[in-house]
Design brief:
The protein has 183 residues and is an all-alpha fold. It contains 7 helices and 2 strands. It is globular, with a radius of gyration of 20 Å.
């Protein structure tokens, strides 16, 4: 019984910590997330069924959690994560302008420019935003927090794409079941 009580207390503490982390995360990015320019990201599909805003929110949250756990700059990571894809156009049909490279190479600096037009961006936050596509961006990151976003961005993107594929597969499966009279 004593073990069970300790386990329950441990679980309660972990949930309490999660709630504190959530509150702190919201206090860090809340005002930025409500900015009209940032909210424009909701208008652009990014990966599968995920808007650019949703994707950036996912990346921001994972950046925050990982950096906080490591004792690194969680606030800068959260802010930069929210703004890292603030390029504000639909990249799926985007045609590079004369002298421009493909979207994957160009959008980090466009995002940084848009972020700077709305917010004070520190050197570290700028590094995180502008180099989140490393090694495409060639210049290596200057800050350890930038390496976190490189990984969280890829992880979130993969999850978002896999979510679409699993939904598509489930839809086909349900259609087949219905055709066989099993549903």
């Amino acid at each position: 019984m004593k073990y069970l009580n300790k386990t329950v207390e441990y679980i309660k503490k972990k949930h309490s910590n999660r709630d504190q982390d959530k509150d702190e995360f919201v206090s860090v990015i809340g005002a930025m997330a409500n900015n009209d320019k940032v909210k424009e990201m909701k208008n652009f599909n990014h990966h599968s069924y995920t808007s650019c805003f949703e994707h950036s929110l996912h990346v921001s949250y994972y950046n925050y959690k990982i950096c906080k756990r490591l004792g690194w700059d969680a606030k800068a990571s959260a802010k930069a994560g929210l703004l890292h894809d603030m390029f504000l156009y639909d990249w799926h049909g985007y045609k590079p302008q004369s002298g421009e490279r493909l979207h994957g190479f160009e959008h980090p600096l466009k995002s940084l420019k848009n972020a700077r037009s709305c917010f004070h961006i520190t050197e570290k936050e700028g590094d995180i935003i502008s180099k989140h596509m490393f090694p495409l961006t060639i210049t290596p990151p200057k800050y350890k927090e930038t390496y976190v976003i490189i990984l969280t961005d890829k992880f979130c993107s993969a999850c978002e794409v896999m979510d679409r594929l699993s939904k598509k597969k489930a839809k086909i499966h349900n259609k087949n079941l219905k055709a066989m009279g099993r549903k």
